[in-house]
Specification:
This protein is mainly β. Helices cover 10% and strands 35% of the residues. A hairpin with a 5-residue loop joins strand 7 and strand 8. The protein binds iron/sulfur cluster (2 copies).
Length: 182
């Protein structure tokens, strides 16, 4: 009988070789980490390139793309990464952005914040006293933070941040994520 070019079952030695692989620990750590970290791509508009022509707006069917002042802006919470808005932009202002975020339960609290779009600062109300209030850019980098005062208010100073979209996370173990435009 002709011999098969590969074994149909693992022998004891095969499994022990696999389990001793130096990659098995990193692979298992990656699987655990992947359960806590959500990674996806979305699109963003470079405000330095966008001339506000609005050609891209009708191509977005999710409502993520809108005009804010003289720029197109993409709401990261609504962008599904389809890329349909990219070809209509002949200036090449729309680019792919990897978004990395920590998964978790979002509270359904009555947190409000504003102004949005922001200019110099943002006021957050309705959160629990002592809760952290953190601002992340769309790469997941922490760019500003404060804590909620005893009377339930927090003020984020954003004058040093570039124009663009940001995410505000309010709370620690249970948190709410808000989308901010500056
Ligand atoms: S098509 Fe390009 S340049 Fe025109 S508004 Fe959209 S992103 Fe800006
Ligand atoms: S990538 Fe798709 S969902 Fe996101 S802004 Fe462009 S058209 Fe809208």
């Amino acid at each position: 009988m002709a011999e098969l070019p590969y074994p149909l079952i693992f022998r004891k030695g095969d499994i022990s070789v696999f389990s001793k692989s130096r990659w098995i620990v990193p692979i298992m750590l990656f699987i655990v980490a992947a359960s806590a970290i959500a990674m996806l791509w979305i699109y963003q508009v470079d405000p330095a390139i966008c001339n506000g022509c609005a050609r891209c707006i009708p191509y977005c069917t999710t409502g993520a793309l809108s005009m804010v002042g003289s720029n197109a802006v993409i709401d990261p919470a609504l962008c599904n990464g389809c890329g349909d808005c990219v070809p209509p932009c002949i200036r090449g202002a729309i680019y792919k952005y990897w978004y990395v975020g920590i998964t978790g339960d979002e509270t359904e609290g009555q947190i409000s914040f504003g102004p949005n779009p922001a200019v110099e600062s943002v006021f957050v109300t309705g959160a629990a006293a002592g809760d952290p209030v953190e601002v992340f850019d769309l790469t997941g980098r922490l760019v500003a933070s404060t804590v909620v005062s005893p009377d339930g208010e927090a003020v984020l100073e954003l004058s040093n941040l570039a124009s663009g979209n940001y995410l505000i996370r309010v709370g620690m173990d249970e948190f709410q994520v808000l989308t901010l435009i500056k």
